[in-house]
Design goal:
With 133 residues, this protein is mainly beta. 7% of the residues lie in helices and 44% in strands. The protein is built from 2 helices and 11 strands, in the order E-E-E-H-E-E-E-E-E-E-H-E-E. Strands 2, 4, 5, 6, 9, 10 and 11 form a 7-stranded mixed beta sheet that branches. Strands 1-3-8-7 form a 4-stranded antiparallel beta sheet, with no helix packed on it.
C-alpha cells in the first residue's frame, strides 16, 4: 500500500515562504513508473474549517491546478525519479495557516473535485503551517 509523508511545515511570518515535501513509499511505488502514474494533490484544513483543495499536479508533471486564493503564490512540482512532490509557498498570509496534506490518486477528477473527495487512494499525515506575526 502506498504511503505518503509530508514535511517542511513550520512557523513563518506573513510574506515569508515555505516549501513542503511529500515523499511516497511502499511497494506500489517501488519503481518510478508506478509513481509517475499517480496524480498528486495538496489539501489543507484550517482550525474549525473543512478540508479544502489547494493544488494538484498530474502524472506527467505538466498539468497543474490551483485554488484561486493561492494561484500566483504557490507552485506545485514533482520529481518522479525520487517519488516526491513539492509545494512551494510564497507570500504566505495568515489565512494560509492550516495542516497541509498530500494525497494521491490515479483519477485526476477525484484529485481536483469540489468539494474535496476524501476517499482518495492515499493521504499523508499532514504537516502544520502557521503564518503569524
Amino acid at each position: 500500500q502506498i504511503q505518503l509523508v509530508e514535511s517542511g511545515g513550520g512557523l513563518v511570518r506573513p510574506g515569508g515562504s515555505l516549501r513542503l515535501t511529500c515523499a511516497a513509499s511502499g511497494r506500489s511505488v517501488e519503481d518510478s513508473f508506478a509513481f509517475s502514474d499517480l496524480n498528486m494533490g495538496w489539501f489543507r484544513q484550517a482550525p474549525g474549517k473543512e478540508r479544502e483543495f489547494v493544488a494538484a499536479i498530474d502524472w506527467s508533471g505538466h498539468g497543474t491546478r490551483y485554488l484561486d486564493a493561492v494561484q500566483g503564490r504557490f507552485t506545485v512540482f514533482r520529481n518522479n525519479a525520487e517519488n516526491m512532490v513539492f509545494l512551494q509557498m510564497n507570500r504566505l498570509q495568515p489565512d494560509d495557516t492550516a495542516v497541509y496534506y498530500c494525497a494521491a490518486d490515479s483519477n485526476w477528477g477525484r484529485i481536483i473535485a469540489n468539494p474535496v473527495y476524501k476517499n482518495l487512494v492515499a493521504w499523508g499525515q499532514g504537516t502544520l503551517v502557521t503564518v503569524s506575526s
